[in-house]
Amino acid sequence: MTRPSLLLLDLDGADAEALDLVRAARRRCRVVRFANSPERARLDPEVDAVVSSARIGVAKPDPEAFRRALRVLQHSVSATLLCDEDPENVAAARGLGIDAAHVPTARALREALSARGLLDEQSTVDHDQSEQDGALIVLSDKEDAHRLAAELEQSGWAPCAVHRDMLAGEDDAEDADWVVELRTAPDGTPAGAHLAELTELADREEGFVTGMN
């Protein structure tokens, strides 16, 4: 199997073993919790970003939910793996061509990740070499995005550019998000190395953060 560069997870019952597996996979690919519920979960501190179906307006297992999530994350179907506790979500993802695994237990999660090279030290790239360079803060309100961009620019972040992103690919204001693009932190390091700090800012504005190359 081809090693994915994006891992979508929905593990409401994540135990200590599952969390260890997620940490190991995160050293080899980008990891995002993708769930119907917007509520914070035990898994959140272990992932690069959180995308909720409530946030994008469509719930799993509707195929449109997966399309919108990948558009927000700027990622391709072919390089994505979904690990989900719900078999209906897995079936829906597979119907779109997304590699997906039903993982009701930590053992099933281990097998799914190992089979795709995400737990194999010999066949993967070190996380320090593949870490995201930049970061995107995704908000639903234009004014909030411009205000946050101005705050970040004053603090030394760059370039703090604001873009309009259409989730559904149509000219419909209800489907538009506003994205603040960041490449460099005030200390000169890549913005992608500060996802935890930026996530706190995004949470304040009811948005979310994702890394970018």
UniProtKB/TrEMBL annotation:
Swiss-Prot/TrEMBL keywords: Hydrolase
Molecular function GO labels: hydrolase activity
Family matches, as InterPro entries: HAD-like_sf, HAD_sf
Organism domain of life: Bacteria
Name the record gives this protein: Hydrolase of the HAD superfamily
